[in-house]
Amino acid sequence: MKVWFSGGAMIAALALGGCHNPTPASGSAPYEHGRYAGIGIYAADPLWSHMTVSEKPTNKAAATIADDRTIIVVVDSKTGEVRQCGNMSGYCVGMNPWAGAFASGRSAPLNLAKHAAELGDDEAVATNEVIAENASDGEH
């Protein structure tokens, strides 16, 4: 009986000895997510092409914000900064209410060459008025 018990204890010890987290291979770090996380991809609003941009491309063939059809929105997981970038121009604007100011013209509210009302975009104007009204009433 003593031999059987010792043999069983030895088998159990060997089986349980394999129940631990494997160490990473030499020189490799544990898996980590990237710094930027995607929020979404959106169609470029007509107002996007009316932002006042301080840096104009010197290359005539380079895409401008008027060429952007899609806006890619990401968040920096380390700082909380949210960036909106045009798919063709690569021009980005951002906002981070938890940090210092962005460069002039690159943080909300943005300067526009024309506003929605000036473009005849009655739907956008009406939507913005409803959002503003709800915000003043304490609704979100």
Summed up:
The protein is an alpha+beta fold. It has helices at residues 2-17, 122-136; strands spanning 36-43, 70-76, 82-86, 92-95.
Describe the protein in words.
With 140 residues, the chain is α+β, with helices and mostly antiparallel strands. The protein has one domain. It is built from two helices and four strands; from the N terminus they run αββββα. It has a four-stranded antiparallel β-sheet, with no helix packed on it. A hairpin with a 5-residue loop joins strand 3 and strand 4. The chain is globular.
Strand content: 15-25%
Largest sheet: 4 strands, antiparallel
The arrangement of helices and strands along the chain is HEEEEH
C-alpha geometry: globular
Question: What is the number of helical segments per DSSP (H or I, 4+ residues)?
Answer: 2
Mean pLDDT: 74
Radius of gyration (Å): 28 Å
Name the strands of the widest sheet in spatial order.
1-2-3-4
What separation lies between the terminal Cα atoms? 74 Å
Structural class of the helix and strand makeup? alpha+beta
In helices, the fraction of residues equals 10-25%
> Count of DSSP E strands?
4
